[in-house]
Amino acid sequence: MHFYLLVSPMEALIASMLNPHDFGAYMATGSRKTTAEQLIFTEVTGDFGSDFDWDYAHRACVPHPDGSPKHSVYLSVYRVLERIPLDKISNLYLTTRDGRSLELAKGELTPPLYWKGYALYKELCPVTPLVASSLPPEPFARYLVDPTSKISVPSIVFADVKIIDLDNMEHTGNVGGLYDHGGNEHFRSCFEEVKQQPGKRSKTIDRSFGNKFSYQAIGQGLYIANYKDGIIFYPMPQREDIRHNHYEWGRSANFY
Questions:
Q1: What is 61-125 written as a DSSP string?
Q2: What's the pTM?
Q3: Banded pLDDT at 235 (limits 50, 70, 90)
């Protein structure tokens, strides 16, 4: 049996007899291939604590009478992320709308390669805004989960997002539809605000941004932070690495 933490498009803890890639395909497309949904999830290791009914999972997540595996048993759909210790979270998976998953392993948390004095982040769970920030990823994560802050969350999943040259849109490379919605002046004003106002740590650009976020827009990687346990980081492969080692996933995710 496997346990999966789904962080996008919803938050849930799910037991399944499927391996991660088959689980991603099932959740994205359904058993009859009638749905199509991008999703992000991690595998969770072991039974832990008393917040979830592990006994129920073992009773319910059993093969069907015909011997086929049980695809999913939901254990919780509310405030899941904050109740899972970071040391119980394993690899992370980015699943495309046609059910192909890219597996990301944990990596060393490093500073940004090219720091502009501001950053762009897509928060994924439990809140989902697109925000500009004056903080690099690690201090941004600690700011979001700081319990002494007036506005914080116990845990957060977010992605570092590529920032393009807004004055040279024809030579930006493929970042999906992120900057194709006529709001570039709004991007500029938000970046200027966090750069020029001392103490301004974040500025909301879009409150949900769900359908406009694509995997091509991810910069260095994705982060999971918890105010008790710290931060874990999943580096995003470079485009050439995706082309050579994960070609079918890259095609499915519209990287080329």
A1: S---TTSPPP--EEEE-SS-GGGS-GGGEEEEEEE-TTS-EEEE--B-----SS--S-EEEEEEE
A2: 0.91
A3: very high
